[in-house]
Design goal:
The protein has a domain of 43 residues. Helices cover 31% and strands 6% of the residues. The protein contains two helices and two strands. The chain has a two-stranded parallel ribbon. The protein starts with a strand and ends in a 33-residue tail after the last helix.
Length: 72
């Protein structure tokens, strides 16, 4: 079970004892993952694979000044 809220962090041991299954504090796991990434010197890719797509022209009802002012 993975807890999805920092407010539940104190319940990890109690839930493990009560249900007999591993319970993971999601916030603690995320912090440890970031610590590992920092320790390895890893950073966000600069290749641009997740950059915004190139813009394109608007066509149809919303072309022109950008807003339909309800004028007929």
């Amino acid at each position: 079970m993975v807890l999805g809220c920092a407010g539940m962090a104190d319940l990890t041991r109690q839930l493990t004892a009560k249900f007999g299954l591993p319970v993971i504090d999601g916030v603690a796991a995320a912090v440890k993952m970031v610590e590992g990434l920092v320790a390895q010197g890893l950073k966000t890719s600069k290749a641009g694979g997740y950059s915004l797509p190139p813009g394109k022209d608007y066509v149809g009802e919303f072309s022109g000044d950008g807003l339909d002012q309800g004028e007929s």
